[in-house]
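Minimal example, chain plus coenzyme A.
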Amino acid sequence: MALEFELQKYSKDIKLKGGKKCKLRPLCKEDEKAFHTFFLAVPESERMFIKHRVTEKQVIRDWCRNIDLGRNLPLLAVMDGKIVGDATLHQQLGGWKRHIGRVSVLVHPKYRGRGLARALVGEIVSIARHLGLEKVEAEFIGEQEAAIKMFALLGFSNLVRMEDYVKDMQAISHDYVLMGLDLKTDEEYAGMG
Ligand SMILES: CC(C)(COP(=O)(O)OP(=O)(O)OC[C@H]1O[C@@H](n2cnc3c(N)ncnc32)[C@H](O)[C@@H]1OP(=O)(O)O)[C@@H](O)C(=O)NCCC(=O)NCCS
């Protein structure tokens, strides 16, 4: 299976800006405590924009006990035994969006600016391509400017922006931004080279 083949590539060591090494690997059931600790490090102002109540232990426990990498593939960045980043590939496995993967990313505030998100999202895009997905998309709250900029640098383009369309965890409305990357087009270019 394509997914099993992709997963065999991990764990993988990468070098960050500044020279430190970091390990990339998928989430496993033993990560419950470390994954919860990772989310607790995210400031409240940012956590409001996360779709799930990640400070609640039960939420993380459910994720770690019901791992289905074919549906949600969380690729973790681990440094000194600590989870410092996560990029997840979400797949629909049927329906209108079965050819589109969704990517989300979060980096521990103390480990930002070292190229971690760039590396994680790059890996997820590569996995998506090898799995035969045709597109990847990413969703944002309008204020997530750093993330929007970063995805643009990785080749994603703005697909839509809808004013005051979504509500954060405190029920405040925000713009919704959808970005996307066409993997097929990329592949055609690659084939021409
Ligand atoms: C956005 C986020 C993932 C970036 O993580 P990071 O590991 O610091 O990003 P990187 O170091 O890989 O930066 C990649 C590029 O993005 C740009 N970038 C990253 N953070 C930025 C910031 N705060 N302001 C402006 N540009 C920024 C940089 O230009 C960088 O390019 P460079 O490598 O040429 O310098 C991180 O700030 C985060 O977790 N934010 C909260 C969660 C979020 O918004 N997720 C997106 C929803 S899917």
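The chain has a mean pLDDT of 94. Helices lie at 2-7, 32-40, 44-47, 57-65, 116-130, 145-153, 183-192.
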